[in-house]
Amino acid sequence: MEQKKTIKDVAELAGVSKSTVSRYLNHGYISLEKQERVRRAIEKTGFQSNFFARRLKTKESKLIGIVLPRMDSVTVGKLLAGIGRVLEPAGYQGILLVSQLSVSKELENIRNLQQQGVDGILVDSVGITREHIRLGRESALPILYTGQKHEGVHYVKLDDRAAGRMMGAYLRQMGHCRAVFAGVSERDTAVGIDRKQGFIEAFTEGRRNARVDFVETGFDFLSAYNQAEEVRRCQATVVVGATDNISLGILRYFHERGIKVPEEISVAGFGGYEVGAVVYPALTTVAFDYELVGMKAARYMLDLLQNKPVEECMDVPLFFVERESVRNLTKACEPEQPASMNGMT
Amino acid sequence: MEQKKTIKDVAELAGVSKSTVSRYLNHGYISLEKQERVRRAIEKTGFQSNFFARRLKTKESKLIGIVLPRMDSVTVGKLLAGIGRVLEPAGYQGILLVSQLSVSKELENIRNLQQQGVDGILVDSVGITREHIRLGRESALPILYTGQKHEGVHYVKLDDRAAGRMMGAYLRQMGHCRAVFAGVSERDTAVGIDRKQGFIEAFTEGRRNARVDFVETGFDFLSAYNQAEEVRRCQATVVVGATDNISLGILRYFHERGIKVPEEISVAGFGGYEVGAVVYPALTTVAFDYELVGMKAARYMLDLLQNKPVEECMDVPLFFVERESVRNLTKACEPEQPASMNGMT
DNA sequence: CTGTTAGCGCGTTCAG
DNA sequence: CTGAACGCGCTAACAG
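Output (structure tokens, whole complex):
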């Protein structure tokens, strides 16, 4: 519980001036001899430079504000892991603020961060509004969005349309012609529109006999479960949930009614959460690498901070994870092998 | 992109001195008239006080360092949500550092935080070592641990022994006499020892015919899956996983071999993750409220920061979630109803 | 290469 | 109740 050591203490102990110590800490224009003396003085005192004093001068906080819609979600966790993985080696740390899925709270958080002296702000947004844009213009702080995109802002996002197309192409190839898309409101551009449109395109493109019905649900398991009856009525051969959670809710409903998946009806989803592998039957899905999104976003932010030419390559790979929940209609015989650990990880 | 406003700008615009503005911002010994003038000047300039300058003076950062073992986990997410829920209203923010499940990284993070000017440190630890204690002594910063406990440090933790006992008592009441406990290494005091011991106590206490076998696995789904054969050999009527993940791995194995749960063998777990409700059969489990742990920890930290008398009440409630995976051996007839939405949330 | 001198923006005495 | 003056700990500009 010693008195906090300052650069002055070190200077005195080393018999040099404060600026020499400061130089030692920074650009290091200093003779080898004094360098050694300072080094030892620092070691002896256990000195560490005062964060706030330094920041007050340099105007650099080495802090990145991170605004999250919520905390208790796997995808957010992955995203953060990715962000941390590139921010930390670069000497940056993150300050976390949570918006509780509210746009106004999100804006408040951004405003807050703008004055807290962070160097930049990463926002995993619930939706980019005009106010977001305004806030961005008013401050020199770089803001980078993930999850949503918008004209004139920096963002990193996975390609929802491509994900949709991927699924559409797969189901088509598996011989399906009638699908139900259990999706979310179109107010969500990424999931509600792009993902669905991509699917419909690839699934129906250039064939007359294909058809996609649409049932709207919320994002959560339960609301999907509650819409499952409606989904069932569509009489499709496959139901595609806009999210793994949605598919899981439907799967659960089918299971309770004794409807066999994939024998009687196929189910597929988007997200690639681990839980999809644990469930029976294991869920076929398009997996997103959220950790990679986080890493890309962080790298992008770092570039922004150094005014580097920002590379516009924002394609985050998608993985198709084929598991057990989709039936191949083109084969005469059913696959006989038991459920396997395929695509588990 | 205006020039950053300082307290000086406000003072000039309001026609008062800097100190008056400062007073307005803090203890407010200021006449109503000037109060109004300052208020408007602040509004006009959009002034917000400089974080670093203020901290440099007050020695209070209103920042809490949070050290996490990993980010991509549901429990950590819940914990954080809880922490945020009480820290934020108190005007504090969190700085997050991730230890990648490494003790040395965890220590490094703590050291780092100690010099970054945070007011306190919350550590969701992977294990408290002597070095942790030493670090704590060397600095005046309060450190509070969660997840693990240790003599002479502040901690908030759920009662693993009680959780174990809860499960033991339940299974006993359901008429089970032979159990396998699929647990983790005893190097983990909380999960590896306390939880198991609690279970064994309650399950066997005072009856000769009860028996508990032990099979060691890792924390993850897959390693449990790989030990499932071993578990099966024990010929017990019920298998208890130390973690829902472990139980899920075993469930999966049983499913693949066509072993019916709970008809042929029962399965139960600890944790209460949502995924346990989605799986078939839905997993009976002791649920922990990690969000509450987070809230308690944060509140405890706040008390520490204000030198309040710390209330030693650290009991975090446990919930027994009875679902479908345990068979009642005391009844002659099987329950006939289909799987239901019970205990879903 | 080095010490001296100024502030960064704010809070806080200390006279008035 | 208010303003002037000082200093938090550090970095940067300046002479030497």
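Residues 332-345 of chain A have pLDDT under 50 and may be disordered.
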